[in-house]
Amino acid sequence: MARMLATANYWIRVVLAGAWFFAVAAVALVRSWWQKDNSSLGHQFASPMARGALRLLGARVSVADASRLTDVQPCIYMGNHQSNLDVVVYGSLYPPRTIVIGKVELKRIPLFGRMFAAGRNIMIDRKNRTESIAGLDQAVSALREHGLSIWIFPEGRRSRGAGFLPFKKGGFHMAIAAQCPIVPIVSGATASLMDTRARRLGGGTVQVSVLEPISTVGLTSDDVEPLMQRTRDLMAAELERISRPG
Hints:
Elements: H1 2-32, H2 41-57, E1 59-64, H3 68-71, E2 76-79, H4 86-91, E3 98-103, H5 112-118, E4 122-124, H6 129-146, E5 149-152, H7 170-178, E6 182-187, E7 194-195, E8 200-201, E9 204-210, H8 224-243
Parallel strand pairs: 1-9, 2-5, 2-6, 3-4, 3-5
Antiparallel strand pairs: 6-9, 7-8
Helix pairs in contact: 1-2, 1-5, 6-7
């Protein structure tokens, strides 16, 4: 009986969180129709979506050094990518005037896909090298000419909690081309919040650290590899620190 109740509780909360996600996306999409500048549409969606979803899932997010999120804009935010829950965790701290480089498949998500496109986000087909390069050029233009920040996941895909996957070079080429700082963001493990196999919600608090910005002023394409390795090392060390018991 206890397991049945836990499973029922899981499905009720997950379905409500999903309904809330799409409801907020719909509101943001409608708002985009009359706003002259939709560069903060992502923030307008992410903030209320995350607050409601976290409450429904019984989770909280604790952010260390949140002021660093807006100290050096425009910049490139780089976060570790564990699961689909990242959209909720990172949504709670997603800054204004920030856009995302996402995969073109996001267009297929009802309501959200149209809202995502309306928010000036950049969608690329990772299988199409020419289109991917064009997307990076578009992002550099957004940084330089429009003062927008970019959010990316340098791993390129979800790690599913298995530490850090190898980083892709694109974001680092972009940061150097725009001569803008990188702001690494590290989320602690989210696996305990939701066990999709056991149909159980664990609740609890996710620790998120915003690391010191990394300057790219004066760097060239020859510096991509060491910049990428330095960023990954800093993020990996922070993940290890916040993952220690106690």
